[in-house]
Hints:
alpha+beta
Amino acid sequence: MVRTNKRLAFTMIELIFAIVIISIAVVSLPVMTKITEKGIEESILQEAIFAASAELMGVSTGYWDERSMDDIDVSYMSRVINITTGVNDCNTSTHLRPGHIAQPLHRRCLYASPAQAALDKALDANITSLDDFDTAGVDVNLTITTVGNSTERQGYKNIYTSVIDVNRTNNSYIKTITSIIKISGEKKVKLSMQSANIGEIDYYKRRF
């Protein structure tokens, strides 16, 4: 007589192990999904921070105000504006403000102080000032640019938009620049920096 050991079903132990493994997978799946979603959200937020930082750096390259170019034919980043109504803290003969260095081509005040109403305006298309970047209340698309029949997104990036606000309070020599980055219309990050009306030293006068 020949005996054969054919198994027609799982043993109880095997069934218990299978149930335990399936249970662990089912319970851990939502946790893994949540961790993945959190990682994606943090990556998107980091991209938004980078975008806002880049926007701020771009804005900061502009002139503090277009009126700093009023009394000269060429543009100098070293120009400083006297904006205090009724007070002139710039020497009318040397064009120096207290703290300025009395050296050629260093920081100088504007020859004539502009009227308050003329400040903070994007008046001249040939002069790039901080206020030219002001898009307060308007969402400006950052990432979508058409190249032939394709776009930069390539189907994976969200739509990033930027809102830049440049604000000077009354007679303040400081302008606050705020960059708000939105993703698909939802505000994700807001960064701010300040730019002072102190002018810069000409490049060829700098020493390293």
